[in-house]
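Aggregate trends can hide what the representation actually does to any particular protein. For completeness, the protein is quoted in full, as a sequence line and a line of structure tokens.
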Amino acid sequence: MKRILMIGMAAMLAMTVAACGKKAAPAESVESTAAGSAEIESSEAVGESVLTATVQKLAGDTLSVELDDGQSMSFDISGAAVSKAWELMPGDQVDIGYDGEDPVDGMAVRSVVVSVPFEYVTEGYTENSTLYGRIEAVDEKSITVRELLDERKEGAPETKDTASVTEEDFLGESYTFARAPYETTVTKDGVKPGAYAQISYLGELTKDPVCFRICTEDMEEDPAAERIGIRGKVEKVEDGVIYLRASEDTEFRFTTAGNEELLKQADMLKGREVVLNFSDSLRQRVATADSIEEIKV
């Protein structure tokens, strides 16, 4: 798709932004995704009951939750089975396994399983942040991109002559991104000034954003543009979760949403450099892996 004709830019932009990356997983997959990553012993044991609640606070070994009726209770989880990957956070919906029929405030419980992470019901967590625009400058450590706007920017000269509409009329602010060591690039002719690209990033756009994926316009129609991935080393596979060491101080975690074959594949690649593609967002504690492929040197 060429970008030279600026007439109809808004319509073209809608197509462009839709390309270079798939949408987040549908809402109906939330519970299976969370449950698939926390392979804790089932709460179906004889004499064990299950309470569903929402996490309010975790202070040491004391978990405070809110029940469906608005009542608050606290439980001792010092001896409970809790997935290490899913660090309990306020807003998480959890299933609490305990002995007996009725829960008692302050009682010790047997297990805590995250059934619906708070990220899945909080705006902005299930999709990656992206920006589409023209590359102004790029080197090994950073990339500067001038945003392509949905419509002509404020202050652009008014004209009825479509031939006088210029590319500059649709270009907004420039943003500089640090390039992460785990960044992946989807490109045919290279990442270079003047090319248009979609940037997937972490952090705030106006405060030291980090780019983890670049997809240039020459790949918009390629199937590879549908995949979102990062590079890293498979550190371990534990409790249904893949731990990916992306850099010295950065680790990402991924569930396979019950895909045992993908889990086995990841286990076989422990200690190796890979590209791991995922379907939702790196902003989540545990994202959902789609595929994994070893990087051949």
Observations:
- The chain has three domains: 9-24+126-226, 27-121, 229-294.
- The first helix runs from residue 9 to 18.
